[in-house]
Design a protein that fits this description.
alpha+beta, four-stranded antiparallel beta sheet
Length: 140
């Protein structure tokens, strides 16, 4: 099984270092002198980048079109049999489960009934693909 920490660090390098370098560049290039006519101020460039990040974040967190996979995290101590039974009760199908049976990827279920898993000990029920990476890393 691959180490999810490696992937998290790789994502940090790929998506964290370039903005850091851009910020350092903007800080270094911002002087007290007026910029030449026709050039943008570094603060305006930084504000534009920040606005794009704020808009792009929620869009990136949307589930894929037509995706019906839901991630479910049950409380510690929940057996695989209990979590599978809870999924079966909402007419869902288990696509993947971690070895403990506490973290599942499920599909289907009675329309809009995945919230009922909270009554069976679920701590988190989400259809966001980002949840999988975050929860998987926290269980290392």
């Amino acid at each position: 099984m691959p180490n999810p920490l490696f992937y998290d660090l790789a994502w940090m390098v790929v998506f964290g270092v370039p903005p850091l370098l851009a910020g350092l560049w903007l800080r270094r290039s911002s002087g007290h002198d007026e910029p030449p006519t026709g050039t943008r101020r570094p603060a305006a460039v930084a504000a534009t980048i920040a606005a794009l990040a704020i808009v792009a974040g929620p869009v990136a967190a949307l589930p894929p079109a037509g995706g019906t996979t839901t991630m479910v995290l049950f409380r510690p101590g929940t057996s695989a049999a209990q979590s599978f039974a809870a999924v079966a009760e909402i007419d869902g199908r288990v696509l993947w489960a971690d070895p403990s049976g506490e973290f599942l990827a499920i599909e289907g279920g009675s329309s809009g009934q995945s919230w009922r898993l909270y009554g069976h000990g679920a701590l988190l029920v989400s259809s966001s693909p980002i949840v999988a990476g975050c929860v998987a890393w926290s269980r290392v």
